[in-house]
Amino acid sequence: LSGDDVETFFDMRSSIYGHHPHHQMGGYPDPIQNPEMDEDCELARQGVDSDTIDYEDPRLKELTKGAADWSLLFQIDTDDDLDLMWGDCGMLYFWIRREDAKRLKFDEAWLILQCS
User: Is the pLDDT of residue 96 over 90?
Assistant: First the structure.
């Protein structure tokens, strides 16, 4: 998704879920902060802290080359009915490389917490 498609996608999701939690398995994530979580996962896989990297670093393109191999496994939203609170009304995102998912190799999955 890109450009206007992204905006339309999030507008549509908001109209479907309203103020209800956005739990889901697979598909496109519903980011609260950084939408490039696949890049963060790839950086983490290579031992690079995405919070400290200079996004002007010329190595960034090479370091994130494998980002497209990652996909959302599932996301768990803050949910008052389940007594779940992630940070300040945040969401947990579990990511996995597609090849690892095919091999049922979940020990290489990555967790990202985002909150508002």
Answer: yes
